[in-house]
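Look over this today:
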Amino acid sequence: MAEHDLIAFAPGGAPEPWRLVGPEGLVQLEPRAWLGGNEFSLLVGAMVNGLGIGLGELITLERHVKERLLQRVLPDFTMHGGALWAVYPSARRVSPKVRGFIALLKEHLRGAGWINL
């Protein structure tokens, strides 16, 4: 990885470790990124513009991959962890529209390969 320009999520100033699961199990890397930030759109923009290699969920980067603006460089590795939350008021009084949206969101994420839903 030392020969590549890396772009990393760095919410506190220091890049977050990269936790990847590959053919031989979990690998954790401490990226030495030339660019770090806490705004994903900035990091994705840098990757799309050829400024380096970074991590991202396929569901987030899918459009860029389809348009051939990005490509996977470690296809045998996946990223685990993270969370996506649907936040809404009290579960006792959730409107049918909100319930329908959450059901649609779950279906979409299952279809995109997300697990534990």
